[in-house]
Amino acid sequence: MKKSLLAVALLGAFGVASAQSSVTVYGTMDAGVGYTNGANAAGTQTTLESGQQSYSRIGFKGTEDLGGGLKALFVLEQGVQLDTGSSGYNTTGSNTSTSTTSGNTGTFSSQAYVGLGGNFGTVKLGRQFSPLYETYASIDPFQNGFSANINNFFGNSSSTTSVAAGGNVASYQRMSNAVTYSTPDNLYGFKGTVAYGFGEQAGDTSAQSQVGASLSYINGPLTVAYAYHQANNDTVVGSVATPGETFKTNFIGAAYDFNVVKVHAAFDQNQQADQTLKTQDYMLGVTVPFGAHSVFADYTHKDNKLVQNADADQYAIGYTYTLSKRTNLYTSYSYVKNKEDSYINTDVAGNSVSTFQVGMRHSF
Q: For 16, which DSSP code?
């Protein structure tokens, strides 16, 4: 009898402990066919791509209730290339599924952090999305996905380096060696995040470091957001950071949901090194949901004051059809018109680039 009571007590204690912590396996599997024209000198290209609408990944996340409103949390997330079965992920918007950039491969290269959360907000340590990149997703009609996503133009200080040399490789999307703090979600509609990524260079604590911040206000159908990012000594040429270069960007955007249509608008200004001249980007977009369908489109313009004849324009439209809460079909088309010295989405200066995508995404 005493043994039975002890067993019941132990099981009860174990049940309480189990209820205080949880681990979830999650992921997104996205694959489809992509067609591009003008991305390189060889001509058109048709590929089976992984991660067209959003990058394919598998992850583990968990929380533990520490009492008094305090909780521990973690995320381990790895990109997956569905076309080859290999690990890693594409830079969102790349024209082929074989295109990866430095830092995008390896175990848990997508996200890997541990943190504490409570009434004070959340502190996280590890590899994370930057505040700028997450702010883009809240405003971009394409939600940082598809070949037409906002990252083709925004956050790039120049459009004068080819895709092969890394001109459209944005080093701000994820921050390694990062400490972030985010405010609680209930501050009268306001939400803020600050982030610092250690450069970890001997003798110079600022070298290779990154700083990020964002502030948003959400009130019913209205979203207004600002974000800042600075990468010290981190201008990317291929996969090599050039010493002495500093990248800065300021972004502001807004969206308003009228139910039948949602409108989006954004502006950013980018500065590279000690250049007094800057580049500026403008975006106007719409999202039209109806039943299981959603249509979204935008127009984006780069005003390149840093280099002459390097302006560019993008026209894009996308469509999704929801099969269930976790599965959807999609397609998108984008057209980038580069001036003679602009390389956006292409290896050939001045090339116009057309991209068509169609595929399927499943989340779990």
A: H
